[in-house]
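Narrative summary of target 7.
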Amino acid sequence: MANLNLPASRVRVSEASDWRSAVTLCLSLLKEEGFVEQRYIDKVVESIASGKGLYMALGEGILLAHSRPEDGACKTGLSLVVLKNPIALGDNDSGKSIQLIFGLSAVDTHSHQELMSEFAKVLLQSSVRESLKSAPDVEAALSVLVTT
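Modeled conformation, tokenized:
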């Protein structure tokens, strides 16, 4: 069983008009609890907008929105936004769409290794990915993660 330590306060099931609002929502969940500063969110959005941050798209409709610790990470943690409908990633036609956005904050290059190991356990299971994408609400999304 994976342990992502994701409380309901850092999970949302939502609609988004574009990738900027979706990524901002996801990282704002971290900001609200003191995990990141606003400049961290700005850096992630800037990186994706420039095209350099498209590496954050992990495939299968998953985005791991993150930046470097020095960009405003205060604590190590994770957030999740499940989009009811996939949206295109980037301002140019990258051909990538996203539906699950995980926000990651890490205070250094080592502190998040255990969290990433647990994250990988979740993402490697196609049934978990698909169940998350169809989760109608936060409780259902958390239920999927708890039973993983």
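The first helix runs from residue 19 to 32.
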